[in-house]
Design brief:
The chain is α/β, with parallel strands linked by helices. Helix content is 48%, strand content 14%. The chain folds into two domains: 48 residues; 219 residues, Glycoside hydrolase/deacetylase (TIM Barrel, Alpha-Beta Barrel).
Length: 294
């Protein structure tokens, strides 16, 4: 608006130039130049003062790129940007620790082998379950909890949560799972949430935070969920050993036959690389400590 007014003033002044003394023309020209420069600088300063959005408000699919083997990948958002919403995809650390997580949409017989291997290696994990998984597999859910694993919330019906605009609708998808978990275990469900398919929006992240949930994405995963295209053991090891990094949150699917077959050897090989396994509850504790220190 200011620049438009100055342009209009310029046109009016130069229309009258033939009628003015040369010295007056010089003064007006210098005055206009000074006014134009001031307006330009003010406009740039105002733009610089506008706060930059930390994350896009639109719906996104969580994605990763791996610029360097053995290093934390680059995600849709940084570790620091996600902290604002009590959300995580990895820990910023040089220590060789990792966090195991499993997404559980249904049961096809692989989870017992996974639980057995976790117990053998004293490795805590988080199992993100949908509503029907708890309803159909109460004994496995109780075993997960009894072994000290986190049973997290993967929503009741596995919808695209970014399309739910109301807090009431968002909460309903989570509380239905909470109720089933309490019915089966007699305990309150841990407030750990993973968006179905990794689809999210900043509004969703804020809703989860307001409901007391921590949101967990991942920094390492591979295509293990296609039942008729299961990766070979060699393909799985190539991805899961080559891309592991300090502070990784690993996402595996309990429905993968390959995962059920390799999990014991996979944990052994990670241990041989110097890695130890920690619970997501320790990650959130570390983050809270960092924020308090700041």
């Amino acid at each position: 608006m200011l620049l438009e007014k100055l342009q209009s003033l310029k046109r009016q002044l130069f229309a009258r130039l033939p009628q003015l003394h040369p010295r007056a023309v010089l003064k007006l020209t210098l005055l206009f130049a000074a006014a134009f420069l001031t307006g330009h600088l003010l406009a740039r300063g105002a733009a610089a003062l506008e706060p930059a959005a930390s994350l896009e408000a639109s719906s996104e699919n969580w994605g990763l790129s791996f610029p360097e083997e053995g290093k934390c990948p680059t995600g849709n958002a940084t570790i620091e940007e996600l902290k604002e919403y009590n959300a995580y995809f990895a820990q910023d650390t040089g220590e060789k620790i990792l966090y195991l997580t499993f997404d559980c949409g249904y049961e096809n017989g692989n989870t017992p082998a996974i639980l057995e291997a976790l117990e053998k290696h004293h490795a805590p994990a988080a199992f993100f379950v949908v509503g029907t998984y708890i309803r159909d597999n109460p004994d496995l859910v109780k075993q997960m909890a009894a072994q000290g694993h986190i049973v997290g919330n993967h929503t009741y019906s596995h919808p695209d949560m970014s399309q739910i605009s109301s807090l009431e609708g968002f909460q309903k998808e989570l509380t239905q799972v909470e109720d089933l978990y309490k019915e089966v275990t007699g305990e309150e469900m841990p407030r750990c949430y993973r968006p179905p398919r990794g689809v999210y929006s900043t509004e969703n992240l804020q809703m989860a935070k307001e409901l007391g949930y921590d949101t967990f994405f991942w920094s390492l995963a591979y295509v293990d969920w296609l039942q008729d295209q299961q990766p070979t053991h060699e393909e799985a090891f190539e991805k899961l050993l080559g891309r592991i990094h300090p502070g990784a949150i690993v996402l595996l699917h309990n429905t993968s036959r390959t995962n059920g077959e390799i999990i014991d050897e996979l944990l052994t090989r990670w241990e041989e690389m110097g890695y130890t396994f920690k619970s997501l509850s320790e990650l959130t504790t570390v983050s809270d400590s960092d924020q308090n220190a700041a």
